[in-house]
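Input record (Table S2, row 84):
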Amino acid sequence: MSVRVKCPHCKGKAVITNSNDLAKEITDVFYKELYVQCMAKDGCGARSVFGMEFKHYVNPPQRDVISMARKILEQQEQLNIKGV
Ligand SMILES: [Zn+2]
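Output record (zinc ion complex):
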């Protein structure tokens, strides 16, 4: 993933100098803190921390969809057996 950031103060060119992956071990979670240095000519020279997070899926992982469908079918079959 390639990300460009701007200085939040002067909106000048900024670079990511370091990052912390805070959700490395957690499935379906992504949260990184990005340490950013303002590099703009005549810029403010601020250092800042950005948060980069995963929000939600547009299409969920394929394997999850299939196993979800399987579970629904199994539940329906069980209901049909009980209903007889
Ligand atoms: Zn700046």
